[in-house]
Design goal:
Shape: elongated
Number of helices: 19
Number of strands: 18
Strand content: 5-15%
Radius of gyration: 29 Å
């Protein structure tokens, strides 16, 4: 065998072997990623073929340029990024059981690194980054080798005038423009484009509270606790045949005996800053970025602003970083005069991954109030804690509260962490009563959001789906001692009576002004339930994972999937855990959905 023929055969074998290597490292994972995209089984072979042709097109690109060296480097860099992204997509999917949500990252890009460190710890994040860089470098050099081999093979064939590789270009280009279009980057780009169009079309509902004011001297205190999945915390959870039937909020249950307990209460969006849009401004159906990133666009009539204009001192105590999600600026724009974080803390105070220890934070907050506002009226005070947060780190000093030793799964870790939070809620209440004996203060304790436990599609991440598991939280109301005789004590609402966060502002102003406001819940807080005007219809918004809107009208729940334009129905009386969807419509335009199913008082 001649040397030239030997080189030709050697090069051909190398190309085949390296192609097989890429098939193992790229196309097999890409195939399974394609399964996750729910591609029709008949289209899977075509989808895989399309990816192979894309790979072939990448290899041919340098042949069309004179300065092949630079083009090879640029193409290798871009191609390596493409295939590394495939691995990132697979890893992300395996972690949260859902596709990469571009807007989930774009809406909070400033916090991506901090959030990743908090969730996974810095050492694990470094390992992930090193792994990603390894694959990126691996692909880069692999492509450079392949480019050189293809070029050598091309020159040999051109010299022998056997075949011109450039003719192969037309077939990959042709296949790129025909179905199926389930490429991995192209899929993500199409999602971004479609969802951006949807975001521009949707508009949030912003209520008009400009006429709201008060002459009341009473105080309003709100305690916002973290990630309160009402199903899990109250023993209504069954997963993989295992029941979690205990009470995981014993202290809050005890506190609620001094007032009214709403065991199920709608958080009307996801993420803390979005929940505060619901609680403090009554804003719902915000499919765009959170207002914490665009405070100048905030309405002028949120609860702190209204109370401030009515002569109230408005104070917020936040246990976590004020820079996170731009919360410091957001709170100021909402109308809080005083915004406290680490300025009230002392050296040595315990700080966890997601903020100061709840118990210590409550102690410092009430110390501040006693020193500066003892026996003060016209106070609006908002407490926000967050140390009970995914990944549900166990705090050894609160191990005595745990019911799972050791915690063996995600849910048990969550419940142990929730028991720690609940213990500190008990400490909060003792300090609250000692502050001014609750003589003239109305207290609300509520969760910011839920966190899914995996009831639906094994989902454990809050940015996917719009099921009850994503939105059900809880609420407790404790009346002031001065007006205790007016209100129900030790009242627990039935679980089929579910109200929502957007009802809080009208409720507070009816308490202060002794007059009815639309969708106030005072009729449930009073000793006698008289009100028949409440419109029991709620909008629950999931801005990520393709986007979805849930409309709950009593026992009827409708979920509209924005990108798919599909409408599902659930009867919550017979299918509260949403296991049996009924498809009411497909290819349903949003405007038609809005006209037919939206709450009338939000249209």
């Amino acid at each position: 065998m001649s040397k030239s023929n030997y080189n030709f055969i050697s090069n051909l074998i190398l190309v085949l072997l390296l192609g097989l290597l890429l098939a193992i490292f790229v196309f097999i994972p890409a195939f399974f990623l394609g399964l996750k995209f729910k591609i029709d089984s008949l289209l899977l072979p075509l989808t895989l073929l399309k990816q192979i042709l894309i790979f072939g097109l990448i290899l041919l690109i340098p042949l069309f340029f004179k300065n092949k060296k630079i083009i090879k480097i640029i193409t290798a860099l871009l191609a390596s990024l493409y295939y590394s992204f495939i691995y990132f997509s697979i890893a992300y999917w395996r972690l949260i059981s859902g596709e990469v949500n571009p807007y989930f990252f774009l809406d909070s890009y400033n916090e991506i690194i901090e959030t990743a460190i908090n969730l996974f710890t810095l050492p694990i994040l470094i390992i992930v980054l090193i792994t990603f860089l390894f694959f990126y470098i691996f692909y880069f050099y692999l492509f450079l080798i392949l480019f050189n081999l293809i070029n050598q093979l091309y020159e040999k064939l051109k010299t022998k005038q056997i075949f011109n590789f450039k003719y192969l270009l037309f077939f990959p280009l042709f296949i790129l423009v025909i179905p199926p279009d389930q490429g991995y980057l192209t899929h993500q780009f199409s999602v971004i484009k479609e969802f951006q169009e949807a975001r521009e079309y949707f508009q949030p509902y912003i209520p008009d509270y400009t006429s709201f004011k008060t002459n009341s001297q009473e105080n309003i205190f709100i305690l916002q606790i973290e990630s309160t999945n009402a199903l899990a915390l109250q023993g209504d959870l069954k997963l993989d045949g295992k029941e979690y039937a205990d009470n995981y909020i014993p202290n809050l249950t005890k506190i609620s005996k001094d007032g009214v307990f709403f065991p199920y209460f709608w958080s009307q969006s996801i993420q803390t800053d979005r929940a505060q849009e619901n609680i403090l401004c009554g804003i719902i159906n915000n499919m765009g970025a959170s207002y914490s990133y665009s405070p100048k666009a905030m309405p002028k009539n949120c609860l702190p602003q209204i109370l401030k204009k009515s002569g109230y001192t408005t104070i917020v105590f936040r246990s976590d970083n004020l820079e996170f999600h731009n919360m410091g600026t957001f709170m100021k724009k909402l109308g809080f005069e005083e915004i406290h974080y680490d300025d009230i803390m002392q050296p040595g105070d315990k700080k966890h991954t997601w903020g100061y220890d709840d118990c210590i934070f409550y102690k410092r907050a009430f110390e501040y109030l006693k020193n500066n506002y003892a026996d003060k009226s016209k106070l609006f005070v908002y407490f926000e804690v967050s140390s009970h947060h995914i990944p549900w780190e166990s705090k050894p000093e609160y191990k005595f509260t745990h019911k799972f030793n050791p915690a063996t799964n995600f849910t048990e870790k969550y419940l142990n962490s929730a028991l720690e939070q609940d213990y500190c809620v008990g400490q909060f209440y003792e300090q609250f009563k000692n502050y001014n004996n609750n003589q003239n203060t109305h207290l609300f304790i509520l969760g910011d959001t839920s966190w899914p436990m995996g009831i639906n599609n094994s989902n454990l991440f809050y940015s996917l789906n719009a099921f009850n598991d994503n939105f059900l939280t809880l609420l407790t109301y404790i009346p002031s001692q001065n007006r205790k005789k007016e209100f129900a004590i030790n009242k627990v609402l039935p679980k089929n009576k579910i109200y929502g966060q957007a009802d809080l502002i009208p409720t507070i102003f009816e308490l202060l002004n002794h007059q009815y406001y639309q969708n106030s819940l005072v009729f449930e807080l009073s000793k006698e339930t008289k009100n028949q005007k409440h419109k029991n219809c709620y909008i629950l918004t999931q801005p990520y994972g393709g986007g979805s809107i849930a409309i709950v009208k009593g026992k009827n729940k409708y979920i509209y999937y924005i990108l798919d334009k599909k409408l599902e129905y659930y009867n919550l009386e017979t299918d509260f855990y949403e296991q049996n969807p009924q498809i009411l419509a497909e290819n349903l335009e949003y405007q038609n959905f809005r006209n037919q199913y939206f709450c009338t008082h939000y249209k």
